[in-house]
Amino acid sequence: MKASVDYVKSKFDEYNKLMFESKLPRPSIMLSSAKTFLGKCEFKKRRLPDGRVERYNFCLRINSRFDLTEQELEDTIIHEMIHYYIGIFQLNDTSAHGQIFRKMMNTINKQYGRHISISHKMTDGQREEAYDKRRRWHVVAVLEFSDGRTGIKVLPRVLPRILNYYNVMGTDRRVTGIKLYMSDNIFFNRYPNSSALNAIIVEKDIVMEHLSGARIIQCDGKQVKVTKG
């Protein structure tokens, strides 16, 4: 199931009464389509005249991009409610998921049969679901390293940036070869698009499988020419 504001509000009220003794005023509740988290407790900070830092203006953001099980969604809401409890009562935990958080989490899990965890770890299927499925053309650089590893870089479709990456990385002593491809395979949507002088280490066989049928970009360091694969 996917989260809705009304569902999150109803579960917040239910678990506030059941687990938090109705001590939590309902904060702003918003949905998120982020690819990197299932839930988040956000707030602002201000310094008081006595020097203490106060947390205020709380908001719970619950992800509506992913199709979660009912248990996963409820555990996510409760996870963020623990953060909210710690924040609204200005408790100083040892870390983001420190001793206070862990104690509350373990108590709730034991008393109510929940499966709340320290981090919202997404499954491989959820990660795959997060990737953009629209087809778009990518410039993909495949680098061979002297230690036998293979790296890739998805580059902006801007000639000066492509040439700069090709020329600079081509002179890196660790790089033994660079090949450029033009591909519209959605597999490459999962990689960041940038011209930073780095590469992501990958399994060569997997990458080349997804580059099957891609157009080859010939580059002489000054110009590029796209040819058929």
Describe this structure in words.
- With 229 residues, the protein is an alpha+beta fold.
- The chain has helices spanning 5-19, 70-88, 99-112, 124-130, 159-170, 204-210, and strands spanning 28-32, 39-47, 53-63, 138-145, 150-155, 175-183, 200-202, 215-219, 224-227.
- The chain has a six-stranded antiparallel β-sheet. A three-stranded mixed β-sheet has the order 1-3-2.
- A hairpin with a 4-residue loop joins β4 and β5 (150-155).
- α1 (5-19) crosses α2 and α2 packs across α3.
- It is elongated.
- The model has no long low-confidence stretch (mean pLDDT 91).
Highlighted features:
single chain, 229 residues, alpha+beta, six-stranded antiparallel beta sheet, 6 helices, elongated
How many E strands? 9
Structural class of the secondary structure composition?
alpha+beta
The biggest beta sheet reads: 6 strands, antiparallel
Percent in strands: 25-35%
Structural Rg: 24 Å
What's the order of the H and E elements?
A: HEEEHHHEEHEEHEE
Count of runs of 4 or more consecutive helical residues:
6
Q: Calculate the terminal CA-CA distance, rounded to whole Å.
A: 42 Å
Work out the helicity level: 25-40%
Sequence stretches where pLDDT stays below 50 over 5 or more residues: none
Cross-sheet strand order for the largest sheet: 7-5-4-6-8-9
In brief:
The chain is of the alpha+beta class and 229 residues long. The chain is built from six helices and nine strands. It has helices at 5-19, 70-88, 99-112, 124-130, 159-170, 204-210, and strands at 28-32, 39-47, 53-63, 138-145, 150-155, 175-183, 200-202, 215-219, 224-227.
